[in-house]
Amino acid sequence: MKSISNPAAFLRKQKQAGFIQAALLFGIALMTAVLGGFALANRSPTSQTDVEQAKVNASVILKQASDLRDGVARYSSDFGSSAVQSTLDFSNTANQGLFDPTARYASPQIMPTTAFANGEDTTIKSPSALSAGHWYINKVTPGKGLATSSEDPMVILPGLRADVCGRVNTLLYGTSSIPVAGTALSVWTTGSTDAGISAISTAPDPAGWPEGCIATSDTKYVYFKVIQEN
User: Fold this and answer.
1) 226: how many CB neighbours lie within 10 A of its CB?
2) 9 pLDDT higher than 80
3) The pLDDT of residue 183
4) What is d(CA 148, CA 90) in angstroms, rounded to the nearest whole number?
5) What three-state secondary structure class fits 59?
6) What is the torsional sign of CA 56, 59, 61, 67?
7) Would you give the DSSP letter of residue 113?
8) Confidence of residue 57 (pLDDT cuts 50, 70, 90)
9) I need a surface site. Which of 97, 99, 149, 162 has the fewest CB within 10 A?
10) What is the pTM of this model?
């Protein structure tokens, strides 16, 4: 029988082979556990993907609203603050519309359809006096304690998902609570009539909020941002 010329080296090889096999088995077990956890999370009614999507949509809402407010500020600089209340609209009409193609005060903002609740109208709208994309301008619904005037022009985004609405308030105020207003969505989107009851002032929490997300009396979720304090 052939003898082993170097017994110590042979033993070292045996130990190394055993270590590699144990490491491979541990890696396989760890990968199995991770994949199993990922599959379980995806089966959950509220997956991590949904949470991240709500965060992204809420951030896009705040950025787009800020861009619209900046455009209104430029418009006001050209025509005076009173023109915002009297003549400003969401059209591309020269010397009147926020989307005047020459002056370029602002560009229409289009939200991803994933921000909206099931069954909501997600059809992209052409610029008009009251709406652009999914956004609307409202100059008649009073805010709550926002200014000395009873009405402050605002941009609104109706029909949001509840989790997106809550995430907006979390980013703004550190709470996912959604105040409930005493008026229906129609008061917000007509933009030309006022029910005589402030949609914001009837909600318990958002006193002095310049922006935020609330639920209407017909259970629609609406984001609003004041574009000029009067």
Assistant:
1) 20
2) no
3) 75
4) 25
5) helix
6) negative
7) G
8) very high
9) 149
10) 0.73
